[in-house]
Amino acid sequence: MTPRPNDLRPTLAVLWLFAILNMVFRDIHEFTMASTINEILSGNVNGNPMSETVLLFGAIAVELLLLAFLLTALLPTRWSRALNLTLVPVAVAGMFFIPPADPDDYFFAAVELCAFAAIFTLAWRWNTGQRSSLLDGERHAV
């Protein structure tokens, strides 16, 4: 199935994947530092206590990002646009729950912000049309 020229779902899904991978690699990159491992073992990361509740909220946030990737590609265009416009601000706010602490964190945060800005801008400008079905965003003749 070839996407239509104005169908941004594949592009937006790839941008979500790019942002998610940047977050994952930032975390992996941090794990190479002994100070990060010591913070994790102490139960405090960047001065914030890591409790089961905090970990649960982190898991929910990660799941939202993964769902954004998946649902952007699968939902009808109108719903996909709405999802992207809603989840980008949530993702950006989540980035600063534990703010960047060193130069490489700022670098990864800048790349992620660029990806989220691209997602939001594309979704904002996306003309999905008013006629859409639950299947693929267009009316079908019966």
Textual characterization of the structure:
The protein is mainly alpha-helical. Helix content is 68%, strand content 3%. The protein is built from 5 helices and 2 strands, in the order ααββααα. The protein has helices spanning 9-30, 34-42, 52-74, 77-95, 103-125, and strands at residues 44-45, 48-49. It is elongated.
Question: What's the quick description here?
Answer:
This protein has a two-stranded antiparallel ribbon. The chain has about 140 residues and is mainly α. The chain contains five helices and two strands, in the order H-H-E-E-H-H-H.
Task: Describe this protein with a few key phrases.
142 residues; mainly alpha; two-stranded antiparallel sheet; 5 helices; 2 strands; disordered C terminus
